[in-house]
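Limitations
The structure tokens in this dataset are predictions for the assembled complex, not deposited experimental models. Users should treat interface geometry with appropriate caution, especially where small molecules or nucleic acid strands are included. An illustrative entry is reproduced here so readers can see what is and is not provided.
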Amino acid sequence: DIQLTQSPSSLSASIGDRVTISCRTSQSVYTYLNWYQHKPGEAPKVLLYGSSNLQTGVPSRFSGSGSGTDFTLTISSLQPEDFATYYCQQSHSSLWTFGQGTKVEIK
Amino acid sequence: EVQLVESGGNLVKPGGSLRLSCAASGFTFNDAWMSWVRQAPGKGLEWVGRIKGKSVGETTDYAATVKGRFTISRDDSNSTLFLQMNSLKTEDTGVYYCTMEMGRWFDPWGQGTLVTVSS
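Predicted assembly:
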């Protein structure tokens, strides 16, 4: 299975901060890398697919980049509704896998 | 509106069985590739397995942690997805989500159903 490692595992940030989350895969997934936001008690929500494609309805402060084994999710200006856990997920192999998650908390 | 609604979660003893259901609406279910994803308490998301659409034979794939114990099936006539879970272990405890594979990502998701495996 392809392993995904996110860093950091958690972070504290203030409203308006620029936040960057990294996802590294154990082998190349080309650009088959997606990002999700998950809040307690809610269904996960896709933010970006194919590394950098913004899902319809997702604010433009979210962006993604990368290919091969190294990927980044950036929130350009953190908003109150962005406090959540973020997961990367690969869809290159037939057995899809998630990163362990990055919890974004209020400083 | 596309909607997925899971049901069937419950408390079950280790070694027991449970069947989860996911009722789908708002899209052509028999062509859809569907997956189950779970989240153990305090842990991250884990893909459990998938069933492909009717046009490609409704074949299945499973994560190594559940292969041989869990079976995914579908009733296209009633737009319902199932997850049959046998030989349950305490580590199978968690919220189970039903989701559709939209291209190469998961969207949308249901709200989840809680499975607790405990003696």
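Some entries come with short summary sentences. For this one: Chain A has a mean pLDDT of 97.
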